[in-house]
Amino acid sequence: MAKLALLATQHSSRISSYYRRSLSQLRWSSTFETKRVFQKPSSFNTSVPYYVTTPIFYVNDAPHIGHLYTMVLADVLKRWQQLHGVRAFLSTGTDEHGLKVQQAAEKKGVKPQELCNTNSAKFHLMARLADISVDYFIRTTDPGHKKAVSTAWLHLKNKLKAGLGLYEGTHKGWYSVADETFVPDDMVQPAKEPQTGKNIKVSKETGNTVEWIEEKTWFFPMTEYKIRLLDFYNKNPRWIQPKSKMAEVRSWVEKNLSDLAVTRPRSRIAWGVRDPTDDSQTIYVWIDALINYLTNAGYGSKWTNASQNMEPWPADVHVVGKDILRFHAVYLPALLMALNLPLPKQILCHNHWIMGGRKMSKSTGNVVDPILALQRWEPDALRYYLMSEGCRRKDMNYSNKLVAHVYVKQLQANLGNLYYRVAKAKVTNAWRVSNAVEMYAAKEFEEMSDQAKKNQPYVTFLRELKRVTAAFSFSMHNCDLQTAIKEIRHLLQDTNRYISETQPWNLVQQTDPESKKRMNWIIFNCAEALRIAGILLQPIMPGKAAELLDGLGVIPSRRTAEYAFMGRDENYGTALSPETPPRRLKKWDALFPPVPDVKEFPKDLIPENMRAEMRKKSKNKMNQLVATLAKEERETGSERDRRMGREEGA
Asked: Which reaction does it catalyse (predicted)?
């Protein structure tokens, strides 16, 4: 057993990095084949709702690609729960108060509410175009939300023991307008304004300009909750993912936590929720914003304390970007402790999308408009790209070249290629998925020859097919979508290689029963890989996955997670009627057709040893490219399998 664990750590970089990180979470069998056996994630609780949230997005400007990524990530987590029969809710919306909105409206010469209406509609549109299944879209200018903020505020001000509630004082310090927060002295550094060369002060953390402010304000005694916060972190070490972010938060609380100024003078910031007991003060925009998660759960309208039915609170997952982690991991839990309400179960923190190695900024002209991107690439393709390339541990680079690479190589050449081969053969009556499924249900494949079952491509394919659902589920349970998608990609690679090497089309003209049985056996195996992949991909690509499953004839009631196992569904497949004549289909006339500008697919992303094939005469360069990359995908899977075989046999 020790030797097996050692061998596992030596696997090639082609093996999913997830396995190398999580050996302690895997149980290994002692069989000769050295199969991976995954521990079962905690069971899905169908008796209580699942509640996932995004931050509410600031409306001082239009949406960018990072906003879309956060929305899609939360939507995938929600749909994954629904795939297991769980009632699930997704909350998102727009943050519409504060100095930045007030100043942006003044700059445009419009009223703040008008600016909010315009930009909030853009976030609405983005969510609709991206097929985000939103249950609650909150706007902080909504009367119901203002009521919830006032309810929480009065509790903090009037119903807590001395020292634990709000107190009045004067705040002196450095304030960042861009970050909407005060910055401690030791987190401020000198800098020069790029345009003028003027000496200024900026936040070390964000680089944004700060200004010195002295003003009357109300404070929340954050330091009184320091011990409780640290105790909570210690008892819940996986509360923030990834764990490196938990370490950052704990360190910041230990070294930098101070009482929080939670109002601003209305003379300076009029656009916000008023303090219901002090008309000279506006409630701090971040207090206003953080309460939104409670508002959507019914706080202030259906319930006000933990003794009542709070469903769907507490949230199961808050999805946040790294720049606002402190507000969600420090300020929000402290406020909830003061309100005597349960804390969210987990915070999932992701890094930022950059372009050309630099942070996206309008001044540098490298901001990606998500609405234009959705119109260019179609929602499912862009959702897949964002989930497969997004990362929690480092900033992610966005470019149309990379989107094209993923679309053509992984979707067209891998998934689309397999679907075309199995469900849309060139002569559509060459075989029928329904016939193959019927033969499996009748147990006609049990007598297949040992030689066929010992064929190496089949052995590799079968191993991947049997483990993919458990591996995919394990990664999804840990909110690791990159690795989850890799599991599907590896299965499709192995299945494409399997069908290429077994060549069922060469058996079509054979008349002997054994050849017909072998052809249908191969088609059934490949159809099972597609069916299982289609079920598992539904949260990521709801439209394309549905199209794939429709093409395979999988009935809607059998598209849930319980059917994502080999042989679980014995009644699917599309059959042509005897009167339907055979017809040829256009290549790639299916899931992932060529899209605008992909014909100019960058040659530097094509492997050097395959460029010669691209120079061959072809009426359709797009089809030639896809066929070339499909071959490369199969060879990638083959090499991965050879490496695994060498190590397992050592």
From this structure: tRNA(Met) + L-methionine + ATP = L-methionyl-tRNA(Met) + AMP + diphosphate
Domain ranges, residue 11: 2-38
| 356 shares its domain with 442 | no
Q: Are 286 and 264 in contact (CB under 8 A)?
A: no
Task: Spell out the SS3 assignment of 169-216.
Answer: EEEEEEEECCCCEEECHHHEEEEECCCCCCEEEEECCCCCEEEEEEEE
**Which pLDDT band, with edges at 50, 70 and 90, does 186 fall under?**
confident
In this predicted structure, the answer to whether residue 246 has a pLDDT above a threshold of 50 is yes
Distances (CA, A) of 387 to 61, 96, 424: 24, 28, 28
Instruction: Give the domain CATH number at 641.
Output: 1.10.730.10
CB 574 within 8 A of CB 589: no
Residues in CB range of 131: below 8 A, 6 or more apart? 75, 379, 380, 383, 542, 543
Please state, for a pLDDT cut of 70, what percent of the chain lies above it. 80
Statement to judge: residues 370 and 462 lie in one domain: no
Model pLDDT, residue 200: 93
CA distance 376 to 311: 39
The answer on 120 and 27 residing in a single domain is no
Question: Whole-prediction pTM value?
Answer: 0.83
| 101 to 108, 137, 331: CA distances (angstroms) | 11, 19, 22
Q: Where are the alpha helices (DSSP H) in 278-346?
A: 285-290, 292-296, 325-326, 332-338
With CA atoms as reference, report the closest residue to 538 among 520, 556, 523, 521.
Answer: 556
Query: At 7, is the pLDDT very low, low, confident or very high (cuts 50, 70, 90)?
Result: very low
How many domains does the structure of the chain reveal? 3
Confidence of residue 130 (pLDDT cuts 50, 70, 90): very high
Strand order in the sheet with 396-397: 358-359, 353-355, 396-397
Q: Do 358 and 484 have their domain in common?
A: no
**Mean pLDDT taken over the chain:** 83
